[in-house]
Task: inverse folding
């Protein structure tokens, strides 16, 4: 018995020595720079953008808070014990990451950091004309239009509702009248007592002639957080669109999306969601300019499919989800996807269909082809949550189907593989309530694929309220072209 124990110990010791020796050889021959490049590429593969830093400090450098607005993390990798390997590794990591951030997010990190150093001590940028209206205390005077999507929670321990200071001031023409409005950008941090994560919304204050006229919290929909990217006149109509970046969960992979909002009358309205392409993609201008004609194309195609004169009711209006522009096969020719619900859908009890409209555009934004695909579902509310990309670059659409009633299996998440010109269902899981989506989408093993945590079983104790239902969770992973249950145990998320 003793000899067996000694033998096992020697085997483990040999393997440990071999692994450590290999690591030493890699570090010795490749050096810190190569390790930094490999580490950056691994993070990029997982869909994470970050800047590394070192030195003895108790808080992140103040200029790094500006990067958070673009979804870029700051990681402190070393304190007072710094050597040449760490310096080389951090330098190579940051150089590789800055190049990728510039290419993917169209953000110049060096310019932002320089901008931060030009700020005053109280965090405001010096203006040539003196004080700005947004630098005044955060008060909402009478007569200001206020649109807030997040209600203030009850005063319960663990809850949070905090509108931050103005982190950035922009002067842009929102309404096309050639006069620039002053725009103050803030973040709202929100957390209910039963939430695992604090949500982040973007709050926009608009000033005209230094008069506060609007406060609008941009509806982040199903996303865990939404960050400001820029203002840009994408379609050349003289009005600057608001571009944001949203994310499902702090720990998901391949789950970032851009969103474009246009200012209409007295508020911002969602114009287009982007996935797999950036806001400077050459097709975007053409797609946005042709958006007004999309409904007519969908209606004509729906008449052919349903063989009815008014498939969307007497007024020819169909219920459609917000459109998404997606480059599903990464060839530079994006597709626009819209979920369409015909009028008859609400009245028939058998053979209920929604339709997935998918149109393919050229790299310059000209519509090339389109298709309308019937998707059979039960009677329910249907909404597109967003998209995921796997580590092998497959694009999947997440569709929530909310049934009436209080069953814990509702709403049901349906997952579709997007491959032009088809949309194919590859998974279905229950328990996807809106307020738990951030907890349900997690890259659990750090492999670059997002696992889906769902309600596997539920038990309703006798004489107990619905809130006391006991739920057991499972996890599904993408494997062999479908989302399949894993054997890993899942705790209450």
Result:
């Amino acid at each position: 018995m003793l000899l067996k124990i000694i033998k096992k110990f020697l085997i483990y010791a040999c393997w440990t020595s071999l692994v450590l020796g290999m690591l030493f050889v890699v570090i010795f021959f490749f050096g810190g720079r190569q390790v930094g490049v490999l580490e950056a590429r691994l993070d990029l593969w997982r869909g994470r953008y970050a800047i590394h830093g070192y030195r003895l400090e108790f808080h992140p450098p103040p200029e790094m808070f500006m990067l958070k607005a673009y979804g870029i993390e700051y990681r402190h990798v070393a304190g007072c014990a710094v050597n040449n390997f760490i310096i080389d590794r951090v330098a190579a990591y940051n150089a590789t990451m800055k190049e990728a951030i510039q290419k993917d997010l169209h953000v110049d990190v060096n310019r932002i950091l320089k901008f931060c150093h030009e700020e005053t001590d109280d965090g405001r940028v010096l203006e040539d004309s003196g004080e700005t209206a947004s630098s005044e205390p955060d008060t909402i005077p009478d007569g200001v239009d206020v649109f807030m999507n997040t209600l203030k929670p009850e005063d319960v321990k663990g809850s949070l509702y905090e509108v931050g200071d103005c982190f950035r001031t922009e002067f842009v023409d929102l309404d096309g009248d050639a006069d620039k409005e002053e725009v103050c950008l803030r973040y709202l941090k929100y957390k209910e007592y039963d939430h695992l994560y604090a949500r982040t919304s973007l709050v926009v204050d608009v000033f005209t002639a230094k008069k506060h006229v609007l406060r609008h919290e941009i509806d982040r929909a199903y996303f865990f957080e939404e960050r400001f990217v820029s203002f840009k006149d994408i379609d050349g109509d003289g009005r600057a669109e608001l571009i944001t970046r949203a994310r499902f969960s702090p720990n998901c992979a391949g789950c970032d999306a851009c969103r474009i909002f246009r200012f209409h009358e007295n508020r911002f309205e969602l114009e287009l969601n982007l996935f797999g392409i950036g806001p400077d993609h050459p097709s975007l201008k053409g797609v946005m300019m042709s958006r007004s004609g999309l409904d007519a194309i969908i209606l004509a195609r729906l008449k052919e499919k349903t063989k009815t004169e008014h498939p969307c009711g007497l007024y020819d209006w169909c219920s459609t989800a917000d459109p998404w522009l997606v480059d599903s096969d990464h060839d530079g020719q994006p597709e626009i996807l819209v979920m369409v619900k015909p009028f008859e859908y609400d009245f028939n009890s058998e053979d209920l269909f929604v339709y997935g409209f998918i149109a393919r555009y050229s790299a310059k934004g000209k519509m090339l082809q389109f298709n309308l695909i019937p998707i059979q579902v039960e009677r329910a509310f249907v909404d597109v949550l967003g998209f995921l990309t796997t580590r092998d670059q497959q694009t999947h659409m997440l569709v929530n189907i909310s049934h009436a009633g209080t069953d814990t299996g509702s709403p049901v998440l349906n997952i579709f593989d997007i491959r032009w010109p088809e949309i194919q269902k590859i998974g279905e899981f229950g328990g996807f309530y809106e307020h738990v989506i951030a907890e349900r989408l997690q890259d659990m093993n750090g492999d670059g694929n997002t696992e889906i945590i769902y309600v596997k079983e539920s038990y309703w104790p006798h004489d107990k309220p619905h809130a006391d239902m006991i739920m057991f969770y499972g996890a599904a992973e993408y494997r062999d072209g479908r989302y399949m249950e894993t054997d890993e145990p899942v705790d209450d998320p």
Notes: The CA atoms of residues 196 and 439 lie 7 Å apart. The chain has seven helices and 25 strands. The radius of gyration is 25 Å. Residues 115-130, 345-351 have pLDDT under 50 and may be disordered.
